[in-house]
Design goal:
- The chain has 79 residues and is of the alpha+beta class.
- It has one domain: Alpha-Beta Plaits.
- 41% of the residues lie in helices and 19% in strands.
- It has three helices and two strands; from the N terminus they run αββαα.
- A hairpin with a 5-residue loop joins β1 and β2.
């Protein structure tokens, strides 16, 4: 499902990038970057994404959180 949602997100207008990390214990984080709040709202309303979220809530995750934040600045050294 994660691969399907990744491909679907990449195809959405306003998608910028996605990063996902999982530890050996199964705990993970996925961060998606979008061009605008409207793009985020459109992604939230996507029928396939909404269905995957419901399946995640009922099947895979005992708890989860969603954070929407605005990136003001990003810099660093890239490999």
């Amino acid at each position: 499902m994660a691969a399907q949602m990744g491909a679907l997100a990449h195809a959405q207008p306003g998608f910028v990038s996605m990063q996902s990390v999982r530890g050996d214990d199964g705990v993970g984080i996925t961060v998606c970057y979008w061009e605008s709040e409207q793009a985020i709202a459109n992604w939230k309303r996507n029928v396939d994404h909404a269905s995957a979220q419901q399946q995640g809530k009922s099947t895979w995750y005992s708890d989860y959180s969603v954070t929407i934040a605005k990136v003001e600045r990003q810099y660093g050294k890239r490999r």
